[in-house]
Write a structure and sequence with these properties.
The protein is of the alpha/beta class. It is built from 15 helices and 21 strands. The chain is globular. The protein binds S-adenosyl-L-homocysteine (SAH), iron/sulfur cluster (SF4) and FE3-S4 cluster.
């Protein structure tokens, strides 16, 4: 949704580098919208930019390091063009605040995760030569309303797929996680604003919306809970597909499983972050479920939708994790048969409880555990993909294949990436296809002649 790419003759140019999760991508889109009001236009080139913003992530140490090395690289640009303004936003900015200004003299302003709507005011001060740090939290009501004058009026043309943030922050305090510190406590946006934003997206070309929140199923505002919100969004004409990420396993209940099974737009895919297969580690992570209750929830979903795709997040090398406990994670991976795993080496984050736990695991053991996990998962994905060969799937077309002629790409309702040969179908169309081949990380298909389509 790079809505700022237009006639740039009178305006200034902004380059935004986004790190981290979809929530940051969503915030970057909002920054573009806000900046367009100030006559800033999007550019893909840092060299061309009058303003560079780094929208940062601090989920793991590596993500934070990336920001400082990028700032190092920007030094040359700033010395070549002293008029260039550099801002740092997002989760590192929220946590580090003014320290970033002290660490790098080239940074002009730092702003937190609640402050992106204050960009115009900050920029005016920056252009007067001030250095700014703005990391204060909005009051609850303001976040809830998400400053409606900006929230959804500026979208001129959106992509086929869009993200939509429904809750900000998190109340869970998992012992490894920095997010409650960077995004604050959980606040749910008003359902009316969410529905209006979704309608606006659909009216400008979006066909698939992914709702974002750290724990979407704890959504509650104006007496509307998450399932009721899904019901309201499902009714929007022209919205073909609805997804969400992530529900916390402890809060994944029957009502939500029923909604996934019954609402037509809701895709048969669930991201259910397990983190570990060991109950002792789960307790120390403060996740508040056991491996058995996790299995029960998977069974509950599969009971309603036997072929639903399930993805997860896993952490290896949490403090104190023994070989046996890592093996329990591997057992869970084999038992559930996830369609996709995001796996991470535990990374200590400032201000989180787990940094104080004893028995931190060495880097080499973490790397070895990650290697074993990835190797096993690769085989599981191959088997999963193989099962799809010969089946009919509904694909939402996202565009032409970047290399192959007469080939388009898209995703199944289970979120598997597919290349479709012998098709010139336009982006945004739904196409029924026959899966012909499984590659290590994607599927190949041909358009199927059947018009009626039964789903996965
Ligand atoms: N709210 C989501 C997670 C958001 S963070 C949830 O609860 O599922 C995305 C993933 O990053 C987490 O699921 C976890 O697997 C990983 N992660 C978070 N903090 C981490 C850390 N300190 N080290 C390694 N991985 C981490
Ligand atoms: Fe972090 Fe846990 Fe909240 Fe997810 S639920 S954002 S892992 S604290
Ligand atoms: Fe990173 Fe912040 Fe998202 S820490 S993962 S950008 S919520």
């Amino acid at each position: 949704m790079k809505s700022c790419t237009q006639n740039t003759e009178d305006g200034k140019k902004v380059f935004i580098q986004t790190y981290g999760c979809q929530m940051n991508e969503y915030d970057t889109d909002k920054m573009f919208e806000v900046l367009r009001q100030e006559n800033y236009f999007h550019t893909d080139s840092q060299e061309d930019a009058d303003l560079i913003i780094l929208n940062t992530c601090s989920i793991r140490e590596k993500a934070e390091h990336k920001v400082y090395s990028e700032l190092g690289r920007l030094r040359n640009l700033k010395s070549a063009n002293p008029e260039l303004k550099i801002g740092v936003g997002g989760c590192v900015a929220q946590q580090e605040g003014e320290a970033i200004l002290r660490r790098d003299a080239n940074v002009d302003f730092v702003f937190g995760t609640d402050n992106l709507f204050e960009l115009p005011r900050m920029l005016r001060k920056v252009h007067n030569g001030e250095k700014i740090t703005q990391t204060g939290r909005h009051d609850r009501q303001k976040v809830r309303n998400f400053i409606p004058e900006y929230a959804f009026q500026q979208i001129s043309k959106s992509g086929i797929k869009a993200h939509l943030t429904i809750t900000k922050g998190c109340n869970n305090h998992c012992s490894f996680c920095v997010v409650p510190l960077t995004r604050g406590l959980e606040v749910s946006r008003e359902p009316e604003h969410i529905v209006a934003e979704a309608e606006k997206l659909v009216s400008t070309g979006t066909r698939e919306i992914c709702l974002l929140g750290q724990n979407v199923n704890s959504y509650k505002a104006n007496g509307v809970d998450f399932v009721e919100l899904l019901n309201r969004l499902d009714k929007i004409d022209g919205l073909q597909r609805l997804r969400f990420t992530s529900p916390h396993p402890k809060d994944f209940h029957e009502k939500l499983a029923d909604a996934i099974a019954s609402l037509p737009s809701l895709c048969e895919h669930l991201h259910l972050p397990l983190q570990s297969g060991s109950n002792r580690i789960l307790r120390r992570m403060r996740r508040w479920y056991t491996i058995d209750t996790f299995y029960e929830k998977v069974a509950m979903l599969r009971d309603r939708l036997p072929k639903a795709a399930i993805s997860t997040d896993l952490i290896v090398g949490f403090p104190g994790e023994t070989d046996e406990e890592f093996e329990m994670t591997m057992e869970a991976v084999r038992n559930v048969g996830f369609d996709l795993i995001y796996s991470f080496k535990y990374s200590p984050r400032p201000g989180t409880r787990a940094t104080e736990y004893p028995e931190h695991i060495s880097e080499s053991i973490k790397s070895e555990r990650l290697r074993i996990l990835l190797e096993t998962q690769e085989k599981i994905v191959q088997e999963k993909y193989q099962v799809l060969v010969g089946t009919e799937q509904e694909v939402l077309i996202e565009g032409n294949h970047h290399r192959k002629a007469n080939t388009v790409t898209g995703r199944t309702r289970g979120n598997h990436p597919v290349s479709i040969h012998n098709s010139t179908e336009k982006a945004g169309e739904l196409l029924s296809v026959l899966i012909t081949r499984a590659n290590p990380n994607s599927l190949e298909a041909e358009p199927s002649s059947a018009i009626s389509f039964a789903g996965i």
